[in-house]
User: What shape does this take?
Amino acid sequence: MANIIALYDSCVLYPAPLRDLLMHLALTGLFCAKWTDAIHDEWIRNVLTNRPDLTQAQLQRTRELMDAHTLDCLITDHEKLIPTLSLPDPNDKHVLAAAIKGSASIIVTYNLKDFPKNILNKFNIEAQHPDIFIAHLIDLAPELVCSAIKRLRSNLKNPPMGSETYLTILRQQALLQTVDRLYKYITYI
Assistant: This one.
């Protein structure tokens, strides 16, 4: 699956638990994760709106770490495609343009209705809910996914988090199939 390119929509980067999981999974080599500066700007703007306890500097550091640790993640020069595209929500055209420019076959998003199949099929792109995306990764390489999750959990120090608690948090992110699959490997995560 290393030849799969997945574009992360801003909605999957907004919640920290999901963002952290997707970033750790991107480091497995199972796929290539991509995004744009505009996608970064969108999730950061929304987090700052809803979390006044966080600062621009904190989120900028997260952004820089994401970019630094994920090989070839930033898609650029996609803006000229935006006016040529049509989607139910015109504000999402930049996401599709980036997916096309970045040769992504998957857009990982909660907003499936904003990316109709009949439009995405023209570009050989599929919109996938993060639950489906991660569940497929578990099916393909459970050892790699479990190792990534174990590493993620070991980095959580304040407070430390057990496997059961972590799976509860994933369930709260609407990752139901993911959690069901991970319960089979709970001693490894």
About this structure: The chain has a mean pLDDT of 96. The first strand starts at residue 5 and ends at 8. Residues 144-188 form one domain. The chain has two domains: 5-134, 144-188.
